[in-house]
């Protein structure tokens, strides 16, 4: 049993349900949303996508610079010079997306947001 199926079983056992499920437009995030919840009616949002690595996108991770783990700031603005995003840009994009969803939701809504990779939230 994989981790997502295990999570689906735990959620069902505990009676945890979600009014709506939101996922990044990335296939792996959509797969995780489906496997973790057993649902296919999730809403895909571009604002939940992982960090844009610019010209480093889809290359081997060993090419990435070292992470700044000491202060939790990840790659900082390294990828901006290569057409990608900074940590701050990723945070602002994702926070804006989540805020917009929350503004359209009621206090009773149970929401799940699914993303993958470098999200820095």
From TrEMBL:
InterPro entries linked: His_Pase_superF_clade-1, His_PPase_superfam
Gene3D superfamilies found in the cross-reference section: Phosphoglycerate mutase-like (3.40.50.1240)
Pfam families xref list: His_Phos_1
Protein name: Histidine phosphatase superfamily (Branch 1)
Lineage: Bacteria, Bacillati, Bacillota, Bacilli, Lactobacillales
